[in-house]
Amino acid sequence: MARYTGPKHKLCRAEGVALCGSPKCPVIRKNAAPPGQHGAKGRKKLSEYGIQLREKQKVKRMYGILERQFKKYYQLASSKKSATGQTLLEILENRLDNAVYRLNLAKSRPQARQLVSHGHVLVNGKKVTISSYNVKIGDVISLSAKAANLNFIKKLQEETKDAKLPSWLAKKATVGKVVARPKRDEQDLAINESLIVEYYSR
């Protein structure tokens, strides 16, 4: 599937969020300016549509999804009886690359996506190379023996051994399990999903 391969920090600065997951991201540094030669200087105040668009772009880039697939996710969420915005976020959280990231088996979603696409992630004992694979309650997610022995994976497991996981996931060593549906209050609270619903409802 197609993916964005341009400058990562440019997107972070545009959205004002450290989408890359790097602790050295320019956004984390004090007074990081938006992209462009003049930064925020001379920029017009965003319209209501502009605010909605920026929120949609932020979430899309946060999960590493292109426009066509993101729109399909929204259409799927809007077809459900539950709240569209929350259902959309639940669909995004249930992506395999995100589950690998939430289980602290990767430092960032892009790294998790790479692990999946390179065949290092197993679901219920079977290799899955599709990052957008939808994990379900009861699914067991693990790393291949080769990946589990990689130095950066070992180091990450040591660094995150006491880290708290979302309640919808359980983990032992490099093996995780989906035990419930993702909860909204355990997701990124900087996301305003209602703006995305308003954007697509125009």
TrEMBL record:
UniProt xrefs under Pfam families: Ribosomal_S4 (PF00163), S4 (PF01479)
What positions does the domain RNA-binding S4 occupy? Answer: 94-158
The Small ribosomal subunit protein uS4 N-terminal domain sits at 3-93
Which InterPro entries does this one have? Ribosomal_uS4 (IPR022801), Ribosomal_uS4_bac-type (IPR005709), Ribosomal_uS4_CS (IPR018079), Ribosomal_uS4_N (IPR001912), S4_RNA-bd (IPR002942), S4_RNA-bd_sf (IPR036986)
> Is the Flavoprotein keyword given for this protein?
no
| Record-linked Gene3D superfamilies | Ribosomal Protein S4 Delta 41, Chain A, domain 1, RNA-binding S4 domain
Say if the entry is tagged with keyword Ribosomal protein. Answer: yes
Task: Enumerate the Gene Ontology biological process terms.
Answer: ribosomal small subunit biogenesis; translation
What family does the database annotate? Belongs to the universal ribosomal protein uS4 family.
* Protein name (Swiss-Prot/TrEMBL): Small ribosomal subunit protein uS4
Q: Which organism is it from?
A: Candidatus Curtissbacteria bacterium RIFCSPLOWO2_01_FULL_42_50
Encoding gene (name): rpsD
